[in-house]
Amino acid sequence: MKKLLLNIVLTAGIGLVSISCGRSLDEVNVDESRISEPVASKLLVPIEYNISAVNYMRANDFTFDIMQVSLDFPNEGNSLSRYYMTENTGAGFWNNSYKWIMQIQDMKKAAIRDNDVNYQAIAMVLNALMYSNLTDTYGDVPFNEASRMDEGISQPKFDQQKNIYLQLLDDLKTANSLFVTTKLLTGPDLFYKAESDVNGITNWKKFCNSLSLRLLTRILKKNGEVNVHERIQEIINNPTVYPIFQNNNETAKLNVTGVAPLLPPIARPQDFTTGRAASAFFVETLKANNDPRMALFFGQAKSIPANANIGYKGAPSGYAYGTTFDYQPSNMNQNLAKAPLNILLYPYAELQFTLSELALKGIISGSAQTYYESGVKATIEQWGSTMPANYFTNTSVAYNGTLERIMLQKYVALFFVDQQQWFEKRRTGFPVLPNNGGLLNNGNLPQRLMYPPNPKVLNTTNYQAAVQQMGGDDINVKTWWNQ
C-alpha cells in the first residue's frame, strides 16, 4: 500500500498515553526521548528532516486524493478520493505535527537560553509553518497551552483560529527582526546550509517573510477585521527590511540525497504506485498545457488486453460506481519516491502566483501577468525541466486576467506541497474539480478534518468547547478565514 506508517511518538497532553500497572502518572508523563539540556544546533537537522517527511507524506496520502491528483484504483468502496473521511483520517498528521512542534519549542528555548537569535528566529518560522498547517486542517487547535506538560498542563485549551493566525503573523514579524544575516549557524542546516553559505540566513529571512505572505493571503477575506492589506503592503513595499524569495534557488526545500540519514520518506518505491492511478483531471490539465514534465510525473496508460502504451490517460476521481475501464490508467512515476528528490515546503513559484493574485486584486502594485508568467516558468524549472519556447502562446496556459487561471496554475505548482492545494481550493473555489458521479458528501469538498480520537477522549472538556465554538466537529464546517 502507498501509505507509510511513520514512527509516531505522541505528544504529552495531546497524544495517547499508555499506562502500565505499577507506574505513577508522573513517571508515565516524562518524555524520555527528549534531551534534558537540548542544544539548538543539534536539534535543527532532525526537525528539518522530519517535518519535511511529514509534509511529503501528507501530500502523498491525503492531498493527492482529495484534490484529484491521484486515486486508489480500482476502488468502488469508501475512499478518500470519494470524500470519505473518519476521525482517524488526520490522526497521524495531528500526532506527528505536535511531536515536532514540541521539538521546535525545545530548540527555541535552547536558543533563547544561549542568546542565539538566528536559531530562535528559525524556530519561530518553523513553528508558524507547522501550526498554520494544523489550524488550516482542523480550525481551532491547542496552541498557547500545547506541549506544556512540563508545566503541568495536560489538557490544553483549544485556541480560536483567528488568534492563532494573529500570533503566528506577529511571531514571523519578530523573527524577521531577529535574524543576523552576517552570522553563520553553529551547526548543519539542511534547507539553506546556513552553517557555511553566507546567504543562508538571508534565505531563512526570505522564507520567513514569504511565509507571512502565504498566511496573509489565506486570510484575505478577513481584511478589515484584521489589517491584512496593510500587513501585505508593509512587506512588499520595503524589500530591504522584509526580503522575500527572488528565484527557485531560494525555495524552502529539503534535498533527499539517498545517503543516510537523508533517505526518502517512502522506504519502498513500489508502495508509491501500488493500488493507485493518476487522476484524469491532473493529467488532462498538464496535457492542455503541453507540460514538459508529464513523463517525470506519470507513466503511460496501457490498452487492455494488448498492454500497449496509449499515451497519458488518468482515471476519473470519484468515478461512478459500476464504471468499467478498457484501459489501465496512467500511474505515478516511481521516481517521485526515489532519491535524489526535493521535498518542497514553500516553492518560489507559489509566491509568484500569490503576488499575481494580489496584483490582480489591486492590493499591491506590479503586473499580475508578469508575476503569473514568472510562476509558470518557475513551476516547470523547479523540477529540473526546461521552459518551452513560446509556451504562453498556448491558450490553455496564457494569462487571461482571471483568478481562475492563476489558481489553476498555482494548483499545478503546488504538486507535492503538503496540503496547500486543498487550502487554496477551499479559499478561492479554484480549480473547479469535476464530480464524476461517485463522490460522497453530496459532492462537496470537505472544508476541514474531524478532530482525531485522542483529544476527544483525553481532553474532552476542551474538545467540546472547541466544537461548540466552531459550530460542530464536521467536515463541512468552514474555518474562520473562510467564513
Give a description of the structure.
The protein is mainly alpha-helical. The protein has a single domain, classed as Serine Threonine Protein Phosphatase 5, Tetratricopeptide repeat (Alpha Horseshoe). It has 16 helices and 8 strands. A two-stranded antiparallel ribbon has the order 1-5. The chain starts with 24 loop residues before the first helix and ends in a 13-residue tail after the last helix. The N terminus is likely disordered.
What does the largest sheet look like? 2 strands, antiparallel
As for the number of domains, it is 1
Reported CATH architecture? Alpha Horseshoe
Q: What is the highest CATH level, the class?
A: Mainly Alpha
Overall strand count: 8
In short:
The chain is built from 16 helices and 8 strands. The chain has 483 residues and is mainly α.
Provide the descriptors you would attach to this structure in a database record:
5% strand; globular; two-stranded antiparallel ribbon; Serine Threonine Protein Phosphatase 5, Tetratricopeptide repeat; mainly alpha
List the helices and strands and how they pair.
Elements: H1 25-28, H2 40-66, E1 70-72, H3 91-113, H4 117-138, E2 141-142, E3 158-159, H5 161-178, H6 200-218, H7 228-236, E4 252-256, H8 269-273, E5 276-278, H9 280-289, H10 294-297, E6 302-303, E7 327-328, E8 341-346, H11 348-360, H12 368-381, H13 403-413, H14 420-428, H15 453-458, H16 460-470
Antiparallel strand pairs: 1-5, 2-3, 4-8, 6-7
Helix pairs in contact: 2-3, 3-4, 4-5, 4-6, 5-6, 6-7, 11-12, 11-13, 12-13
